[in-house]
Backbone:
């Protein structure tokens, strides 16, 4: 039986609609407009497209969008000064510094200069610590989106065995913390895990976030499992080597033949990232003003 496809594009549109409704209610009921500031340093083409999409979706949701585009050679001190200025601006509720940063800039230093209450990427060490200890935090967007889709598909996740393949600070580790928070039994595996295929086959929920194209094959998947493929890898097109195509960390066809449900690439987890960025900005705004947080848009 072919797996149910978890449509991230449709789910993200639903989340953005919920965010827009809450933003409208904040405006009419409290006179508050959530604001998201994005800092882009340099001219990385992928980052430019991503920042442009963020800006468009921020405005579509009724939020204020503040974009700061800096030259690649901007001194680190100037970037830190801009972040400090945004920290102090009451119109800005969320701050995102687009990665990667140029080599002369200490990314960790910049991220940890962001006010944790405005850290809508969820990368600040304070938010990492809060998430790890089960306290209220701003959660990284990609794991948050994955959790939302899992909750929607399964209802309760309690008691399910989850395997997260990948140990990055951006996806793997926070994903494991979120699944623990929903009472899963969680294993973090990675490319050096002994008999990785056998570990994956235990999973009721398999999250692939290892960054290796099509590494996870169908015979690694437990029949009926839910597969969340976080990977976005550009590889040569088999029909035309001059072209490329996007694939995930899972070999989609073989995994979909075994899984109960699966996210495609593209169109799965990817669209949820910006949707959750908007949700995090809304959450940060509500917390800053002592307004009740929206339900279902955070962990």
Residues:
């Amino acid at each position: 039986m072919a797996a149910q496809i978890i449509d991230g594009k449709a789910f993200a549109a639903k989340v953005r609609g919920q965010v827009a409704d809450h933003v409208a209610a904040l405006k009419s009921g409290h006179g508050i407009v959530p604001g998201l500031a994005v800092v882009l340093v340099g001219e990385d083409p992928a980052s430019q497209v991503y920042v442009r999409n963020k800006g468009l979706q921020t405005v579509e949701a009724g939020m204020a969008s503040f974009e700061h585009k800096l030259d690649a050679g901007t001194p680190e001190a100037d970037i830190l000064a801009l972040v400090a200025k945004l920290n102090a601006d009451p119109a800005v509720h969320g701050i995102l510094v687009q990665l990667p940063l140029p080599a002369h800039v200490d990314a960790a230093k910049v991220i940890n200069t962001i006010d944790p209450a405005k850290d809508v990427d969820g990368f600040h060490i304070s938010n990492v610590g809060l998430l790890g200890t089960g306290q209220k935090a701003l959660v990284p967007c990609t794991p948050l989106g994955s959790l939302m889709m899992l909750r929607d598909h399964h209802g309760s996740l309690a008691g399910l065995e989850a395997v997260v393949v990948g140990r990055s600070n951006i996806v793997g580790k926070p994903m494991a913390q979120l699944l623990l928070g929903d009472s899963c039994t969680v294993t973090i595996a990675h490319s050096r895990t002994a008999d990785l295929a056998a570990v994956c086959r235990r999973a009721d929920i398999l999250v692939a976030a290892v960054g290796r194209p099509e590494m996870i094959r169908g015979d690694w998947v437990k029949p009926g499992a839910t597969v969340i493929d976080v990977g976005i890898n550009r590889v040569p097109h088999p029909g035309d080597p001059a072209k490329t195509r996007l694939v995930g960390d899972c070999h989609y066809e073989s995994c979909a033949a075994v899984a109960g449900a699966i996210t495609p690439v593209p169109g799965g987890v990817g669209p949820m990232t910006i949707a959750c960025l908007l949700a995090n900005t809304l959450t940060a705004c509500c917390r800053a003003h002592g307004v009740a947080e929206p339900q279902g848009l955070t962990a």
